[in-house]
Amino acid sequence: MSKWIMAGLIGIAGLLAILLLATQLPEKTQDANNGAVFTVQGRPIDAKAALQIYQSMCISCHGTELQGQIGPALAHVGTKMSKEELYRMIASGRRGMPAFEGRLSEDEIITMTTWLASLQ
Ligand code: HEC
């Protein structure tokens, strides 16, 4: 009887380990070169590049601490907007939010999108 309990426990532990691996692999694959954490589609969050763009193009409306000013606060925008919504907002704008398509490259918009999505 206790043999079966042991076997069951080992089986459950094995399953949990596999589940843990399966859920962690796509989300956090460490890059051997710079230790960057990769997100969807193998695109790392490049906070340095994003901050540079933020300082030159977004800070005037969204504030020095992402606290919002003319535009809303962005400090936790990753909790309320999906990557698709973020991308669309930056590329196409909305009312007081200017469209950055043309002023930022697609690559730069993705940089801003992955960074903002990480602000939880
Ligand atoms: C001229 C001022 C201005 C600039 C510059 C600006 N924004 Fe905005 N932004 C706004 C306003 C105003 C809104 C609110 C628009 C709405 O709700 O319709 C907004 C909304 C947003 C939102 C949605 C936030 C939410 O909670 O709904 C995101 C994301 C955003 N901006 C990102 C950026 C990024 C990234 C940049 C720089 C590349 C930038 N903005 C530059 C004014 C600006």
Structure report:
This protein is mainly α. The protein has two domains: 28 residues; 78 residues, Cytochrome Bc1 Complex, Chain D, domain 2, CATH 1.10.760. The chain is 50% helix and 0% strand. It is built from five helices and no strands. Helix 2 crosses helix 5. The longest helix has 23 residues. The termini are far apart. The structure holds heme C (HEC).
Task: Describe the secondary structure blueprint for this structure.
Blueprint: H1 2-24, H2 47-57, H3 59-62, H4 83-92, H5 106-117
Helix pairs in contact: 2-5, 4-5
Bound molecules: heme C (HEC).
Residues 53, 57-58, 60-62, 70-72, 74, 77, 86, 89-90, 94-98, 100, 112, 116 line the site of heme C.
What would the keywords be for this entry?
120 residues; 0% strand; mainly alpha; Cytochrome Bc1 Complex, Chain D, domain 2; single chain; 5 helices; binds heme C
Short structural summary:
The protein has 120 residues and is an all-alpha fold. Helix content is 50%, strand content 0%.
Residue share in helices? Answer: 40-55%
Overall CATH architecture of the largest domain: Orthogonal Bundle
The Cα radius of gyration reads: 20 Å
Please write the string of helix (H) and strand (E) elements: HHHHH
CATH fold-type name of the largest domain? Cytochrome Bc1 Complex, Chain D, domain 2
What is the H level of CATH, i.e. the homologous superfamily of the largest domain?
Cytochrome c-like domain
